[in-house]
Design a protein that fits this description.
The complex is a heterodimer. Chain A is mainly alpha-helical. Chain A contains 13 helices and no strands. Chain A has one domain. Helix content of chain A is 77%, strand content 0%. The radius of gyration of chain A is 21 Å and the shape is globular. Chain B is of the alpha+beta class. Classes of the chains: A mainly alpha, B alpha+beta. The structure holds protoporphyrin IX containing FE.
């Protein structure tokens, strides 16, 4: 049995759900809300099935080349968390899980419109990045239990941070009085850049031939638009993006009324924003930093070597530590900490994707 | 006067070092400066970073910018004096701040709980009220029970017309943040111990050779105090693929020429002896090495025999009259899919193959390739087999060697930090007051119960807990005592 059909079904369900969540938000139609939730649950069940199927398949794959491996060991080695593709799939799964929990706990659907785009972003990235979807043999460095727990906990943490980002973004709109406020300008810039990069990567994807898609995106990252060899195309891309960000800044404030009419309160959003960080921070500290260090030590004999990935995890950790201290010791509330929650997630995204895409791209001297 | 001034200066410095503002500033500076180190390649050849800088500053300015950056220590930033100073400031800040605040928190933890006036209870963050037609002592009994089953042991105080119960739980959870902070200090101490008393090095050890030294980054030999020998190195591959499945070396520790320890190491499974750990980290070919071809030859139906042969040697398969001469070798043999020609596609031993010229009685000479990863290539006409076991002595194993006596502190710190974070985020200090009294004077009227409480975090969950305490007690009161 193949897992990819179930993955495709869930991806489809999430993306349609995202559109319906937005319709729900804009049209304030209760039926739309119920349909969006139902679709999300359906997608989640389908994705869980796919994950289990993939796990079972990897189990047979592993035992085929490691016939002496014990059951538990094989099960751990086969856990579908072994490459970029699988970790992103797991990120989406965790994000949806946390989102559904919040939806049922807080009895609010509107956060869906802010969280599902993140899943769409991740799903699109999976396709655009052209990462291999095949079950691959596990290279020696990855044959460690520490690695498995490291990835598992980090991604649960990332997903919690993702939810806090969604809540903080919604919060900033709700409390913005005017377009001139710094927090609101910051909001439109960050969300605008997020969406622009997403669209840019979509264009990359469409402009690549099937063969090129197989390569990692990093050699093509934004080459179809901003980094196009033809200066004209690049200039147009920049202009369009600036226009888009301007439009977002100009009209985005309208979302505020919509959110308010759905009985979303800033207080609730602030609560979700903090609680997700209160869950994400310990998970990320334990899974991302501590277990990463233990694994590095058991594999290479050095628990910390300041490589870009480690350093960016540390930067992310500092941002969230800053958030906690600003909030609990500095007495910061509201806008100022919400901005930190947004910056924290930008650091998360950079830690996970930017280090691979941007930094290693910078260091790839051959390709220029 | 002077004394006082001195004290003022001390106090100002102490306040500065204890301030959370400083912490916020250091967090931001550390985060921002760390970014530089992820862009500029650390400890790299100058040319690489000059090429990188040229992308930002242009070709002509790049060398100048490089020199400025190098002076600022950006090329080996995390070891530069200013970055290390920042980290020190960070830990001093953390220590001073924790010392500064700890007594207050400790007092808070140790402070005995006191009963509160009813009107104060009604202003607490969580507050509930209910009434029953029952007696004060019945209500008190049931609330004591209900509190106990939620893990609270309540104290009692007599009140006008009634009684007050008050209790708290998990007051020590307030110390969780100090545990987290302590673990960070422990990590720093562990890192310092490691840097001071440990070392890191590497060793490329060819098969069959031994060494008493390992080498630091700049090539300085460092004595081990014993010697280490590599019996063999081997990369195994997944069937039908060139994806490595495992990198393995058999290592032997020798003291005064005597074998004391032998282990096959893999990635993620190192060898430790006398505090020094050897990690499988890389491998490669020894230049111009002259190794042994290890063949196992088996005449059809006969007994296998292992041969160690040099390039050019001639061997015989016993009792068959077939002889072979090792005439060719390829570390990675493949057939070009277009032209069909045999090619060598890697310098590493990905798919080693020995080219053997055979001569058979009654038949002419012919040449065959025997591939290590494909035993079927060694089956000769007549069912005799030649198995290519290894081309030994031509590969080296690349070992990462480290001695880090501080790593135990790091592990302990990891455990402490996990506990601290759990306590800090998921356990809260909760206090509950229950005021039970008749509404009217002189034990008359219904019993009014005011419950109030506060918690150090997660008020919502606490509110649910209080609700369940009240409802449990109410049920019991209604079942057993109402109307009395
Ligand atoms: C990256 C390093 C650090 C981590 C991971 C960390 C962690 C924490 C955590 C988890 C809390 C509890 C916050 C909450 O209530 O939700 C906390 C509180 C606190 N931290 Fe840190 N901390 C760090 C560095 C620092 C530094 C450098 C200072 C120095 C000023 C500091 C001062 C404080 C103070 C004063 C509190 C409040 C303590 C209390 O409630 O009594 N922290 N820290």
């Amino acid at each position: 049995m193949s897992s990819s059909l179930f993955f495709d079904i869930s991806a489809g369900a999430y993306i349609v759900a995202m559109i319906i969540y937005v319709i729900y938000l804009v049209a304030r139609n209760r039926t739309a809300g119920v349909i969006a939730t139902a679709l999300t649950v359906f997608g989640f069940v389908s994705q869980s099935t796919a994950l289990i199927t993939r796990w079972v398949n990897s189990y047979y794959f592993w035992t085929a080349s490691n016939p002496t491996s014990e059951f538990i060991e094989s099960l751990l080695r086969a856990a579908p968390l072994r490459n970029l593709y699988e970790s992103l799939i797991f990120f989406v799964w965790s994000l949806i899980l946390i989102h559904l929990i919040i939806e049922f706990k807080y009895k609010t659907r509107s956060l869906g419109a802010f969280v599902t785009p993140l899943t769409a972003l991740a799903l699109l990235f999976i396709d655009i990045s052209g990462t291999s979807k095949e079950i691959q043999p596990l290279i020696p460095a990855l044959q460690s239990n520490w690695l498995l727990f490291h990835v598992l906990l980090s991604f649960l943490g990332y997903a919690a941070f993702g939810v806090s980002f969604g809540a903080a973004a919604a919060y900033i709109i709700m409390i913005s009085e005017s377009r001139k406020e710094k927090a609101y300008i910051f909001w439109s810039l960050i969300i605008g850049i997020f969406l622009v990069v997403l669209v840019g990567m979509g264009v990359d994807f469409m402009s690549l031939s099937a063969a090129e898609r197989k390569e990692l995106i990093q050699s093509h990252f934004l080459k179809a638009t901003f980094r196009n060899e033809s200066g004209g195309v690049a200039a147009v891309s920049w202009l369009l993006s600036l226009a888009f960000i301007f439009a977002l800044w100009n009209f985005g404030i309208g979302l505020k009324k919509i959110l308010a009419s759905l009985s979303v309160t800033p207080r609730m959003l602030e609560d979700i924003e903090y609680k997700s960080i209160a869950i994400g921070f310990p998970l990320f500290t334990l899974g991302g930093l501590l277990m990463g260090a233990i694994w590095a030590n058991s594999a290479w004999g050095k628990y910390w070597s300041w490589d870009p990935k480690e350093t960016w995890s540390l930067i992310t950790w500092f941002v969230y530590a800053l958030y906690l201290h600003a909030r609990f010791v500095g007495g910061w509330r509201g806008k100022r900490v919400a901005i930190l929650a947004v910056i924290g997630f930008v650091a998360v995204v950079f830690t996970y994707l930017g280090v691979n895409l941007v930094l290693s791209g910078l260091h790839a001297y051959g390709s220029g | 006067m002077e004394e006082k001034e001195k004290q003022d200066v001390f106090e100002t410095i102490w306040k500065f070092l204890a301030s959370v503002k400083l912490a916020v500033a250091v967090f931001i500076i550390l985060a921002l400066s760390s970014i530089i180190g992820t862009i500029v390649e650390q400890q790299a050849e100058p040319a690489r970073n000059i090429a990188l800088l040229a992308k930002f500053f242009g070709d002509s300015a790049a060398p100048t910018v490089y020199n400025i950056f190098a002076k600022l220590g950006f090329m080996d930033m995390y070891r530069s004096w200013w970055f290390v100073s920042l980290l020190s400031l960070f830990s001093i800040n953390l220590i001073v701040c924790s010392i500064d605040r700890f007594p207050r928190t400790w007092k808070l933890v140790k402070m005995p709980l006191k009963p509160l006036a009813e009107n104060v209870i009604r202003t607490l963050p969580v507050k509930k009220e209910t009434k029953f037609r029952t007696t004060v002592s019945a209500a008190k009994g049931e609330f004591l029970n209900s509190l106990r089953s939620s893990g609270y042991r309540a104290l009692e105080a007599t009140e006008k017309n009634g009684v007050q119960l008050y209790c708290q739980k998990w007051q020590y959870s307030r110390l969780g943040v100090y545990v987290v902070h302590l673990s960070i200090i422990l990590i720093f101490i562990g890192a310092i111990v490691g840097a001071r008393f440990g070392f890191g090095g590497f060793l490329n050890l060819p098969e069959g050779q031994e060494s008493e030294f390992v080498y630091s980054q700049d090539g300085t030999p460092m004595p081990l105090g014993f010697s280490i020998k590599c019996n063999w190195y081997e990369t195994s591959y997944y069937a039908g693929m060139d994806t490595p499945q495992e990198f393995q070396s058999e290592l032997v520790i020798l003291e005064n020429g005597k074998e004391v320890l032998k282990k096959v190491i893999e990635v993620n499974s190192p060898l430790t002896y006398k505090g020094i750990t050897f990690f499988q980290s890389s491998y490669g070919m020894v230049p111009n090495a002259n190794g042994y071809f290890v063949f196992t030859v088996t005449p059809n139906g006969g007994r296998p025999e292992t041969l160690w042969l040099r390039f050019g040697d001639t061997f015989e398969i016993p009792g068959t009259g077939i002889s072979g001469t090792i005439a060719d070798f390829s570390p990675a043999l493949a057939r070009n899919q277009v032209t069909g020609a045999l090619i060598t596609y890697s310098e590493n031993m990905v798919n080693p193959a020995a080219g053997v010229r055979f001569s058979m009685p009654g038949q002419g000479a012919f040449k065959g390739w025997i591939l290590k990863r494909h035993p079927e290539t060694g089956v000769l006409p007549g069912g005799h087999t030649i198995k290519f076991d290894d081309y030994w002595g031509v590969e080296y194993t690349g070992l990462q060697v480290s001695k880090d006596p501080g790593v135990w502190l790091i592990y302990i710190a990891c455990i402490i930090m996990s506990i601290g974070l759990y306590v800090a985020f998921f356990i809260s200090h909760k206090k509950i007051w229950v005021h039970i009294a008749h509404e009217g004077p002189g034990d008359k009227g219904p019993v009014r119960i005011s419950v109030g409480g506060n918690t150090s975090r997660n008020t919502l969950a606490f509110e649910k807990e209080i609700e369940s305490i009240i409802s449990r007690a109410s049920h019991a009161i209604e079942e057993k005592h109402s109307g009395k």
